[in-house]
Design brief:
Layout lengths: L1 E3 L6 H10 L9 H9 L2 E6 L5 E8 L9 H13 L3 E9 L8 H12 L5 E9 L3 H9 L3 E8 L4 E9 L2
Parallel strand pairs: 4-5
Antiparallel strand pairs: 1-2, 2-3, 3-4, 5-7, 6-7
């Protein structure tokens, strides 16, 4: 399994992977997913034929073109407490690649690329429930630092960080 950057030809497969991962990640049109990818640092895991199997996108705090309440939460935390965080917008793995520690490999690439930063941060759904993602992030050393409920209580998330560097 190889990791590489984004190619425009990846978009249809990344969109499929993203949509198959809902509600663990937000549903997106292909055009919106491309917009978010273009605002991100992206790592793509590919098979020997160079087909995408999964991806992770990381967004810098202060990226105002990215309309994410969760990124704004991390920005508010930075304003209150200081620090230096890189935000994981999404991580998604194709059904055919599950169980091969691909998500861990994608995170390891992010840990290495951003080793100069203080923390890496993400959110994981509480509602709708995503217990597997909570276990996964905790296994990788993430610690829960907060929670937020919105959409009239139909959605809630736990915020996690992991120290880097």
């Amino acid at each position: 399994m190889t990791l590489r950057g984004f190619l425009e030809t990846d978009l249809p497969e990344l969109h499929k992977i993203n949509q198959d991962s809902v509600p663990g990640v937000s549903s997106e049109t292909e055009a919106d997913l491309l917009k978010w990818i273009n605002l991100s640092t992206v790592f793509i895991a590919v098979d020997p034929e160079n087909r995408p199997l999964g991806f992770i996108t990381l967004v810098e705090p202060g990226t105002k073109d990215y309309p994410s309440a969760n990124l704004r939460w991390f920005e508010a935390r930075l304003a209150r407490e200081g620090g230096d965080v890189i935000y994981v917008d999404r991580i998604a793995v194709s059904d055919c690649a599950r169980g091969r520690r691909l998500g861990e490999k994608l995170y390891q690439a992010a840990f290495s690329a951003f080793a100069h930063r203080g923390e890496i941060g993400c959110e994981v759904n509480i509602e709708p429930p995503n217990p597997g993602s909570h276990r996964f992030h905790q296994r990788l050393g993430f610690k829960q630092i907060g929670e937020r409920s919105y959409d009239e209580g139909r959605k809630s998330v736990a915020y996690y960080v992991r120290a880097l560097g």
